[in-house]
Amino acid sequence: ACGAGGGDDAAGDDGTITMGFAQVGAESGWRTANTKSVQEAAKAAGIDLKFSDAQQKQENQIKAIRSYVQQKVDVIAFSPVVETGWDTVLLEAKRANIPVILTDRAIDSEDTSLYETFLGSDFVEEGNKAAQWLLDNTTGAQKVVELQGTTGAAPAIDRKKGFEEVIASRPDIEIVASQTGDFTRSGGKQVMEAFLRSTPDIDVVYAHNDDMGLGAIEAIRAAGKVPGKDITIITVDAVKAGMEALAAGEINFIVECNPLLGEQLMDLAKKVVAGEEVPARVVTEEGTFTQEQAKAALPDRQY
Ligand code: GYE
């Protein structure tokens, strides 16, 4: 075999491509939709998919990638749970001539030869959009509490950064508390309960995903306040349950993050295995939703 793809063992004897996919977990509605998209797209593309769920633990993902290397799959795709600590295992894949595609989340490594391409959203941009809506729709001082995604994960780091960049132009908007809720509904609920006890007069919740925002809604209601009215809620993702809460007036604004990456991933995989050039970065197109736009979009929503 030669290099990443293109060798005579680059696909099975019958031409079938085998992909090892190391998923983050099943922490959110976004993740469930993403997994379904990957599995369905593999089937439609005739790609033999080996799938693993790391339960949000990097060590499990590393184990899965190692086992794909041992099994000599044709291509490895994965969504790195955190940004750092991948060089060793990706070097093992490289030495075995197995190309790697990053999907959904990026890694932080100097060595860009460790992967062929990165397919996913611009999370800084998502943070920018969340903050821009707050700037455009509020006047006067705003106390914001932030529910961060998984510590060390690209979407948590970048959604925080993007939000902070834009609110910097409004000194009366202040993040008064910020903690991780690990992208889960129960995490969002617990952290919000603590915020409600420790922080008086919260004006705004900025949650890095819908699930944590939905957990926060439960905590706000239990504290006798009205979500979406007494406290403004901004989230990211736009999964079904989030869009329903938005249409019902409990969330105020959602920045979309598209989980339906399966088809593009399979196309990239075929090209990479065939030794064709692929762009180093493929960015997902996405929008935003107000309450009115959520009502209009919901009937046709796939996930
Ligand atoms: O926003 C969140 C999920 O990596 C973009 O992970 C993904 C994020 C998504 O758990 O809901």
Automatic annotation (TrEMBL):
**What's the superkingdom here?**
Bacteria
Coiled coil regions in record: none
Keyword tags: Signal
Q: Does the keyword Cell division apply?
A: no
Q: Gene3D superfamilies, from UniProt?
A: 3.40.50.2300
Query: By its UniProt entry, which PROSITE patterns does this protein fall under?
Result: PROKAR_LIPOPROTEIN (PS51257)
What Gene Ontology terms describe what this protein does at the molecular function level? carbohydrate binding
Under the cellular component aspect of Gene Ontology, which terms does the record hold? cell envelope
Its localization reads: Cell envelope
List, for all copies, the residue spans of the domain called Periplasmic binding protein: 25-277
Q: Which PANTHER family match?
A: D-ALLOSE-BINDING PERIPLASMIC PROTEIN-RELATED, GALACTOFURANOSE-BINDING PROTEIN YTFQ
The entry's family comment says: Belongs to the bacterial solute-binding protein 2 family.
Q: What is this protein called?
A: LacI family transcriptional regulator
Lineage, uppermost ranks: Bacteria, Bacillati, Actinomycetota, Actinomycetes, Pseudonocardiales
